[in-house]
Amino acid sequence: MDRPGATYAGTALGTMGQPTPSPVRSRTTHVSPRVEGLEVTSYEIPTDQPESDGTLEWDSTTLVLVEAFNGRERGIGYTYADRSVETLIESKLAELVEGADAMRPPAVWAAMRRELRNAGQPGLGSMAISAVDIALWDLKARLLGVSLADALPRIRDSVPIYGSGGFTSYDESELREQLRGWIQAGIRSVKIKVGRDPEADPARVALAREVIGPNATLMVDANGAYSLPQALGLAERFAEQQVSWFEEPLSSEDLEGLAELRSRSPAGMAIAAGAWSAVECHRLLEAGAVDVLQADVTRCGGITELLHIGGLCSARQVPFSAHCAPAVSAHACCALETAEHIEYFHDHVRIESMFFDGGPKPDGDALRPGDSRTGLGLEPRRSALEEHRIE
User: Fold this and answer.
1) How far apart are CA 361 and CA 363, in angstroms?
2) Coil, strand, or helix at residue 384?
3) Are strands 292-295 and 320-322 parallel, antiparallel or unpaired?
4) What is the DSSP string of 34-90?
5) d(CA 358, CA 377)
6) Which DSSP letter does residue 362 get?
7) Strands (DSSP E) along the chain, which ranges?
8) What does the alpha-carbon distance between residue 58 and residue 249 come to, in Å, rounded to a whole number?
9) CA–CA separation, 159 vs 161, rounded Å?
10) Calpha distance 162→230 (Å, rounded)
């Protein structure tokens, strides 16, 4: 970081200060190497109430679930996307994966990228690859008899989390309740949405600071809602409430604007943003657009591409922050040297706890993938999911 005070306050980069990981224990002596096929299903799950951020409104989340199987095990992966991702996987990727070596997810990932060259790799294509890639890594770990974190392998036992929600659709009492709940649960870093009403945002941020107290970390996410002049002015106002994280104040595609904002924002305020692929993340870093790089393992191309993005961060010693999907991100981030934290996002936490058994539970402000279950450790609650299946 060349801007004084811009490095996000938290743990030191690398594995300094991390506890020594537990030894990996394999539970199998025989591995069947071939993927027999994929099953893909989409589910539409209503939110607990209508939600919004600075640029979008929604009242449901679509989960596209992929299961990769062979004669012994099933690996699961998923993405939060449109149901059209299911069709894309079935029409373009399923036949490609059938018969592939289950011990080589990166080779299958590369083949999937080539297959989607004309159909489109970013966006829906990247989400499709993500869900399949995660399922393949989960299958590999299950066949090896170890947790996914250990299969990658892990360099740390746990990763910090921050509470994320604070939707712009919340009224004052709802915002207070959610923030207070995180603090009482031992989560000492929280993030709220801003950008829906820029004139009212300083008051919302001040309310959040009042609720969480002076010692908790306060973060904001505009989802690309502001113009550069708005973001510059509001950064100063947010700094009055010790906001240390300003996420996507402008669109992540506005590299020049983000770089200018980063150079002029208050000391101690990190500018964070992410992208769809390692190539796009490289452009963010090359432009000097971010202090912290973000990516979503269920959107960027899966575990394989997230490891590539982690390599970019390691080479530049830039902190990495995982966007959403904590049940998967917890495993992936245990393998990333510069992982700063995981977004413990309200909607995804709710879905992963309602529809899967075996997910990691917070221990204060950290997630630790256990080794008592193989792979991701997740098992779908099929009867609960079936109620939301999209036919």
Assistant:
1) 6
2) helix
3) parallel
4) B--EEEEEEEEEEEEEEEE-SS-EEEEEEEEEEEEE-SS-EEEEEEE--THHHHHII
5) 5
6) B
7) 37-52, 57-69, 74-80, 159-164, 189-193, 217-221, 243-247, 270-274, 292-295, 320-322, 339-345, 356-357, 366-367, 379-380
8) 20
9) 7
10) 26
In 3D, which of 322, 312, 263, 310 has the Cα closest to residue 290? 263
CATH of domain 150-376: 3.20.20.120
The answer to whether 359 touches 327, Cβ cutoff 8 Å, is: yes
Q: Is the distance from CB of 270 to CB of 245 less than 8 angstroms?
A: yes
Give every CB contact of residue 42 below 8 A, 6+ residues apart in sequence.
62, 63, 64, 65, 83, 85, 86, 389, 390
DSSP track, 220-248? EE-TT---HHHHHHHHHHHHTTTEEEEE-
Q: Which amino acid is at 28?
A: T
Q: Does 311 score more than 50 pLDDT?
A: yes
Instruction: Return the pLDDT at 371.
Output: 81
CATH topology of domain 37-145: Enolase-like; domain 1 (3.30.390)
Q: What is the residue whose two structure tokens read 């996420």?
A: 247
Where do the structural domains in the chain lie, given as residue ranges?
A: 37-145, 150-376
Tens digit of each residue's pLDDT (9 = 90 or more) over 18-51: 444 444 444 444 555 899 999 999 999 999 999 9
Q: Which phi-psi region, left, alpha or beta, contains residue 99 (left: φ > 0; alpha: ψ -120 to 50)?
A: left
The reported pTM is 0.91
Distance CA 34, CA 100 (A): 6
CA atoms within 13 A on the CB side of 149: 29
Q: What are phi and psi of 341, to 5 degrees?
A: -170, 175
CB atoms within 10 A of CB 38: 23
User: CB under 8 Å to 181, separation ≥6 — which residues?
Assistant: none
Within this chain, domains 37-145 and 150-376 share the same CATH topology: no
Token look-up 């200018």 returns 260
pLDDT tens by residue, 350-365: 999 999 999 999 999 9
What's at 254, amino acid-wise?
Answer: D
Within 8 A by CB and 6+ apart from 205, the residues are: 192, 194, 218, 220, 237, 238, 241, 243
